[in-house]
Every structure is written in C-alpha cells, then in structure tokens.
TrEMBL record:
Name of the featured protein: Saxitoxin and tetrodotoxin-binding protein 1-like
Gene3D superfamilies noted in UniProt: 2.40.128.20
The organism's place on the tree of life at top rank: Eukaryota
GO CC annotation: extracellular region
Coarse class of the protein's main subcellular location: secreted
UniProt keyword annotation of Isomerase present: no
Endpoints of the signal sequence: 1-42
Lineage summary: Eukaryota, Metazoa, Chordata, Craniata, Vertebrata
Keyword terms: Glycoprotein, Secreted, Signal
Length: 259
C-alpha cells in the first residue's frame, strides 16, 4: 500500500459519490411518480356523490335561456378575484341570437354604483355531444364607451337539480370562473342561498377552483338595469275614476226691492 493510497483515496470516494447521486435521483423520480399517481387517484374522489359536475347536453339548451341572477362565484386567477371582490350584483341574459349562436349579456353592478356590460356571441359546437360554447371577442360597455376586446374563451353549463338553478364554467385566457345562478324571481330567499354555499364549495373543489375569495349575493342588491324586487309600474296600476257628481247651479242673486 502506497502513501498516496493512504492519504488520498480519490477514486473510491468518487465512485461512492456517483452512486449516492444516482440513488438520490432514482428516489426523487420514484417519489414524484407516486405523488402524481396519488393526485390522479384522489382527484375523482372529490366529485363523488356530487351533482352539478356533468355538462348538459344540447337538448337541454332551452333550460338555460332567460334571465339569471348570480348568487355565488369563485375564480382561479387574480383578475377574477379582483372582480368578485368589487361587485354587488351580476345579472345575465341568455338568448338564441341565431340558430348557431347563443348571446350572453352580463351586467355587473360594482360597489359604489358603477355599472358595466358585457355582450358575447357564443358559437354552438359542431359536436353536440360535447356541448361547449366558444367565443372569440367580447363587447364591453362602460360609461357609454364601447370597446371590442379580442378574447377567446369557452363556456359550458353543468347539470343542476332544480329548474330555477344554473351552473356555468366560464374560461377566458388564464382565468376561469365557476358561477351559480338563480332564475330571476327566485333569487331573494337568503336562507336558501346560504344553505347551498357548502355544495358550491364542494363543486369548486371538484373542479380545482379555489374558493378563498368568492362572490355571494345578499338577496337585496339591485341590478344595473332594474331593481332586485321591481315595484309596480305606473301602467300596471288601474285607476278607477270617481263617479260623476251632477253639479247644481248656484241660486240667482236676489233682485233689489224697488223704493
């Protein structure tokens, strides 16, 4: 045995280092694989037993047409969080624009009374079994100024358990919204609205949308274009005229007596 081998066993040490690094990389890759498998297996479990998780079919399109009031919403992006923090109500109208497009008109009342309006024409899919509507531009109106924004997105609707409910997922660029609506006229039962919040959060978990920052409707806030609980309009009030009362002419003035 030489002095060099006693003082500086470089080669064996180098082999041990390489072996240690190799084992570490193998361990890390194995751990990452296990985590991915665990996540994949766990994700479907979050949706077990939940309604509102399947997409509606084209035959149910008529169920979503009409006027709707947003009662709960969550988002996955800062842009969405900023909006949800600052609105007091959101009203949506859905109608058939043509046989191949659905028009969505959204009016948001911001805290402080400022309103804006979005209008989107969404194209029907060619595959009606995969019922997801697409759009490529948005008309934005605020303070009377009209802006056409080049925005691409996808909208699809989830099955619901009541005729007066609508669930929508609205994806645009990096921002995704999960939105739950009540049909206008069925939006003021605050106790019932609060009962559904737990279900909404469970569905958000299922769809991997955080719900730390959400919008909830208070049941009374007005909308940009109408009141939450419309009052009777003048034309709805029937005015019954009073019956005519015959007028009696006053008696003639007395004639002066002659002297």
């Amino acid at each position: 045995m030489t002095f060099l081998s006693l003082c500086c066993p470089q080669k064996p040490r180098s082999r041990r280092v390489r072996l240690s690094q190799s084992r570490m990389m193998t361990f890390v890759k194995g751990l990452m694989l296990l985590l991915m498998v665990a996540a994949a297996n766990a994700a479907p479990g979050n949706c077990d037993g939940l309604n509102h998780t399947n997409t509606i079919s084209a035959k149910d399109l008529k169920k979503i047409l009409g006027d709707w009031v947003l009662v709960w919403s969550a988002s996955n992006h800062q842009e969405g969080w900023d909006l949800l923090r600052n609105i007091s109500s959101s009203h949506v109208e859905l109608s058939m624009h043509t046989n191949e497009t659905v028009e969505l008109v959204e009016r948001n009342m911001h805290k402080g009374g400022v309103c804006d309006k979005y209008s989107v024409n969404m194209s029907m899919p060619s595959d009606l079994d995969d019922f997801k509507l697409t759009f490529s531009s948005t008309e934005y109106i605020k303070d009377g100024a009209v802006t056409i924004e080049d925005e691409h997105g996808i909208v699809y609707f989830l099955e619901t358990s009541c005729d007066d409910c609508m669930a929508m997922i609205y994806s645009m660029n990096e921002t995704k919204y999960l939105l739950f609506y009540k049909r206008e006229g069925h939006h003021q039962d605050l106790a019932k609205l609060k009962e559904d919040h737990v279900m909404y959060m469970e569905i958000a978990d299922c769809k991997h949308i955080p719900h730390d920052i959400i919008f909830t409707y208070d049941g009374v806030a007005d909308f940009c274009h109408k009141k939450s609980a419309p009052e009777h309009h003048v034309e709805d009030v029937v005015v019954v005229p009073e019956p005519d009362v015959p007028t009696v002419p006053p008696p003639p003035p007395p004639t002066p007596e002659s002297s």
